[in-house]
TrEMBL record:
Belongs to the glucose-6-phosphate 1-epimerase family. Keywords: Isomerase. The lineage of its organism: Eukaryota, Viridiplantae, Streptophyta, Embryophyta, Tracheophyta. InterPro entries: Aldose_1/G6P_1-epimerase, G6P_1-epimerase, Gal_mutarotase_sf_dom, GH-type_carb-bd. It catalyses: alpha-D-glucose 6-phosphate = beta-D-glucose 6-phosphate. Its EC number is 5.1.3.15. It comes from Penstemon davidsonii. This is glucose-6-phosphate 1-epimerase. The keyword Isomerase applies.
Amino acid sequence: MSSAAATSVATVPNEKSPVEIHKGINGLEKVILRDIRGSSVESNFKPPKPIRGGIPICFPQFSNLGSLEAHGFARNRFWIVDPSPPPFPTHSSNKKYVDLLLKPSEEDTKIWPHSFEFRLRVTLGPAGDLMLTSRIRNTNTDGKPFTFTFAYHTYFSVSDISEVRVEGLETLDYLDNLQNRQRFTEQGDAITFESEVDKIYLSTPTKIAILDHEKKRTFVIRKDGLPDAVVWNPWDKKAKAMADFGDDEYKHMLCVEAAAVEKPITLKPGEEWRGRQELSTVPSSYCSGQ
Ligand code: BG6
């Protein structure tokens, strides 16, 4: 098996980034360069720090909702490329994919005392859509279940955050991370941005659209098994306070994260969970509907 650093799926290839994934999927970087924000110029590439950009995987804990480091340890680990991945039942021959595997090290089991196999399939569709499918299996031999929260922490590249709208989350309940995770209900309009935002939208639809007027593009997120959606932009003050982020980069990024946060997932030994996120783009004349 060849080993690869995979702390953040889909980071823009550069000499410091974990490029093995890009070798695995020919042409993937063209899609990513366009719509997924690559690693910040200020990113710290020294393990075990996460890379700011791409799609960090938050597992087995989202944010600081538990005793582990923020967003869990999966995003800070080296993953393995599976050289002979099993076919998915729905796999079609015009899709290219690579499977990454994560299993806990002895050190990991000291901080999270469970055995698991995490298989992340990264699939590139013929039209350039990017699909991430996570399969997490409880491989505990002591009969114990485990519980986790999860997010695809996707950094979208936007032309100007002030011109961006998110559709699909209006009228939903959310927990506001900036107000002690109190619960509120979103108003009827699409979400726009004029200050820091850090919200966990609950029980969201399977489709969310990010409209970027300047780019004349709409990013479409389709998800399965991931009921929640986190929306985050640090805005100016927090961006300045983040050592691994450029002061002005907040203007050109938006995180919309397919997630399972409110209701943690529990797996008994032998059980498997699946969470899927599919990203595609369409011209901005596209009218979003469910
Ligand atoms: C978001 C969280 O998912 O990630 C925010 O909702 C957090 O609260 C942000 O600030 C960035 O997290 P990190 O650990 O990558 O700095």
